[in-house]
Structures are given as C-alpha cells and as structure tokens.
Design brief:
There is one protein chain. It contains two helices and eleven strands, in the order E-E-E-E-E-H-E-E-E-E-E-E-H. The protein has one domain: Roll (Pnp Oxidase, Chain A). It has 173 residues and is mainly beta. The mean pLDDT is 92. The longest helix has 6 residues, at 167-172.
Length: 173
C-alpha cells in the first residue's frame, strides 16, 4: 500500500501562531533552499565538483501576497520585529490499494524580517495585488506531525526528517 499525496486541500495563514489572517491571496511561494558551496579540485580528482557546506544556505526570500492592501499587511513591515507566520493546512492523500481519500496535517512556520513591500495597483473594482517580501532566518515544515525540515540560521539548527544533522558540529564548537 502506498499513500499518494494529491494536493493541498485547504490552508489558512496565521500571524504568529494564533491570529488568523484574512485577505492573504490563495498562493504563497515558499523559499528555495540553495546550499552554499565551494569548488573542489586537485590531485586524485577528475576535474571539479561543488562541495556543500551542510546546513548553510544562501539568502532565503519569501513573498507574501495580499489581495488588497489592508491593515494586516502593515504589521509585516515593522523592521524592529520578526515577522512570524504559520501556515496550517490539510494535504489530500489517496490510499493506493483502496483508492480512498484521506487528509494529513501540514504546518509551516516562517520567521524573518521585512525586506520590501509592493504597493500594487489601484484600479476601481479590483484588488491591489500588494505584497510583502521577507528575508527568512527560520523555517519549519511539518507533515502529519513529523518535522520534515527545520532550519534556524540564528541558532545553528538544521533537521531533516527528524534527524538533527548538525548536532555533532554544535558539540564540537
């Protein structure tokens, strides 16, 4: 039997972990995880290869779109505070043997600082399509209660599928 993940059935966005945000658009693009690398070459190697510095990632940006410029959006741009967002949702899955549908929980927590704001357009009868860009320094992705990814750039934490990949390094430093 296989569980086939089909789609995000529904989700909500919260400011912090409790205040539900109304007016966030229906699509939020999560950041890319681009590892910081260094080129290795030398005797005994046929050419060059990129060596990953495990747990180190390039700048991570996330844009939070709004249907309409409104008061919630302006909470995001206070650069003296970290912007904390929590996405809670349900992933629709199918059982490969029975073809029955079910749902598993998804939770994504992001923390960062405002890096920019797009005012959008003002036109009669339509939304402004405004957005806030944030520089992320923390992200947690949980699927069905399991920490699949946790990256905390400020506290030296990098976990994948529940395994702390930098535990040994933290003990050495």
């Amino acid at each position: 039997m296989y569980i086939i993940p089909e789609k995000i059935h529904d989700f909500n966005v919260y400011y912090g972990d409790s205040e539900k945000l109304i007016g966030i658009s229906d699509e939020v693009t999560l950041p890319d995880f681009e590892a910081i690398t260094d080129t290795m070459s030398g005797p005994g190697m046929l050419g060059e290869m990129e060596s990953v510095a495990m747990g180190h990632f390039a700048s991570m940006e996330m844009e939070v779109p709004f249907r309409q410029m409104y008061d919630h959006m302006f909470k995001f741009i206070d650069q003296t505070k970290a912007l904390a967002l929590t996405f809670r949702g349900a992933i629709q899955v199918m059982n490969s043997e029975t073809t029955e549908l079910d749902f598993v929980q998804m939770r994504i927590v992001c923390r960062g600082r405002c890096k920019g704001i797009t005012g959008g357009k003002a036109k009669q009868g339509v939304g402004t399509a405004s957005s806030v860009k944030q520089e992320l320094f923390y992200i947690l992705i949980e699927i069905n209660g399991v920490t699949e990814l946790e990256l905390d750039k400020l506290n030296f934490v990098y976990k994948v599928h529940g395994k702390d990949l930098l535990e040994k390094v933290r003990k050495m430093c």
